[in-house]
Amino acid sequence: MKGRKMAGKGKERAILPESYVKNWNGKGKEDALALLRQHAKVTVDPMRYGVEFCSCLYDLFQHSVKGNLEAEDVAALLGRLVSSQEFKNLPSIIADHLSVLDVEVQCGDSKDRKENFKSLILACQEVVPISLLKEHLEVDTLEAVGLIPSAKVFNQKFVKMKTRLFFKQQKFNLFREENEGYSKLISELGHAHMQSEHAPVFMENVKSLIGHFNLDPNRVLDVILDAFESMIEDTGFFLTLLECYPADPQTFVHILGNKFHFYQVNQEESQATCSGTPRSLYRLAAVLIQNKLVSLELLYSHLVPTDDLIISKNHAYIEETKIKAKKINSISLAERSGDDKQQSSDNKSCAFFILEPRPDYELDSNQKLGLCEALIRQGCWSSAKLLIGHLPMHYTQLCPAIVAAITEVLHITLEPLYRSIAPRAAKGKTLLVDVKTIHCSKFTDINIDVMGIMYTLGPLMSQDPILLAKVVRIGRAFFKDYYSTASNSLQQDSPTIDMLFRKFITLLSETILPSLSLLQCNCGMSEEVWGMIKQLPYEVRYQLYGRWKNQSYELYPSLLLAKALTINRAKYIMKRLTKENVKPSGRHLGKLSHSNPGIVFDCVLSQIQTYDNLIVPVVDALKYLSPLGYDILSYCIIEALGNPSKERLKHEDTNISQWLQGLANFCGTVFKKYNIELTGLLQYIINQLKNGKSFDLLVLKEVVQKMSGIEISEDMTVSQLEALAGGELLKAEGAYFSQVRNVKKSSQRLRETLVSSQLSTPLCLLMGQQRDSIIFREGIDRHLKLAGQLYDHCMDTLVQFGGFLSSHFSMEEYSERIPSLDSLHLEYHIPADIAFFLLRPIMASSIITKFVALEKSSGEVDKAERKSKSMKQQANYLAAVKDVMEPILKSANMLHSNKIWEDINAKLYTTFWSLSLYDLHVPVGRYDEEIGKLEQSIKALDDSSDMASTKKRKEQEKYQVVIDKLKEEKRKQSENHKMILVRISNEQDEWFNTKVTKNRTITQFLQLCIFPRCLYTTADAVYCAKFVYFLHTHRTPNFSTLLFFDKVFSDISYTSACCTENEARRYGKFLGELLEVISKWHGQVSTYEKECADTPGFLSMMRNSSNKNHLDFENFRHICFKWHFKITKSLVVCLESKDYMQIRNSLIVLTKLLPQYPKVQHLAIALEKRVEKIIEEEKKDRPDLFALATGYSGMLKAQKSNLVAETDYHNKEERVKAVQDTVSSNGIDAKPSSTSQSRVKQEHSDKVLVGVEADIAGSSNVAKEKPRTSQNREHSKATEPESKNSRSDEKKASLSADKKSSLANGPTKSDHSSKRVSDTGAGESQEPKRRKVEESKEDTNKGKETSSKDHERLAKASADRKRERSSDKDSPSVEAARDLKKKKESPSSSPASDPKSSSVPDSSKDKKRVIKIASKNESVGGATTSSSTATKKASHSPSASNSPNRKVSTVRKDKEDDKHKK
Question: Which of 1004, 1051, 1043, 1044 shows the shortest CA–CA distance to 1027?
Answer without folding.
Answer: 1044
